Amino acid sequence: MKFCSQCGALVSRRTPAGDTHERYVCDACQTIHYQNPKMVVGCIPEWEDQILLCRRAIEPRHGFWTLPAGFMELRETTAQAAAREALEEANASIEIGDLHTLYNLPHIDQVYLIYRGRLLSLDYAPGEESLEVQLFREADIPWEQIAFPAVAYALQHYFSDRRLGQYSLHHGVHNASQPYELGNRSTQISKQQTK
Predict the structure, then answer these.
(1) pTM for this structure?
(2) Is the pLDDT of residue 59 over 70?
């Protein structure tokens, strides 16, 4: 960042009084410009024993498979963002259910929130960011072609929960230099707790 979005003057990177982090601060009007992690929100669209995946038409990971997900917009809830991404990427109408996975990716300043979702019809088609969309049974998931580790882990937890007949909220942290920290830190969530 070079210029202040409030007044157009130059900004410099420094720790404002009373803060603990360096920020971009305007040299003229003293506006502090906060930069925070991006929220990536999506869903696992369910149809009977299958889920809907999208093959990416954009970088990064062009041609690889993923869940419909993307960056949250201002003035929307996370559930609204998940439904919007399914509509944009797969032209799919989804009823958003419970939050299923939350992954922190501090090395790229992102947080993934993945909901369970019920596909409302088989009327779906690739959006502008997808080459194709397809329903998959667990045995047919193209695991070697999944675009992102957070998506692979969300799918693994989803299918494991489905086999148990009980869904949990799973969470973890992933850094580029280490594997996901998952497993016994998953938290059981009941419908009452999510309301």
Answers:
(1) 0.83
(2) yes
CA atoms of 14 and 85, how far apart (whole Å): 36
pLDDT digits (tens, 9 = 90+) for 63-74: 999 999 999 999
Q: How confident is the model at residue 178 (pLDDT cuts 50, 70, 90)?
A: low
**What is the maximum alpha-carbon separation in the chain?**
60
Tokens of 25: 């601060």
CATH class assigned to 38-189 = alpha beta
Tell me the pLDDT tens digit for each residue of 89-143: 999 999 999 999 999 999 999 999 999 999 999 999 999 999 999 999 999 999 9
Distance CA 180, CA 59 (A): 23
- Top CATH class of 1-35 equals mainly beta
What are the residue boundaries of the structural domains of the chain, listed by start?
Answer: 1-35, 38-189
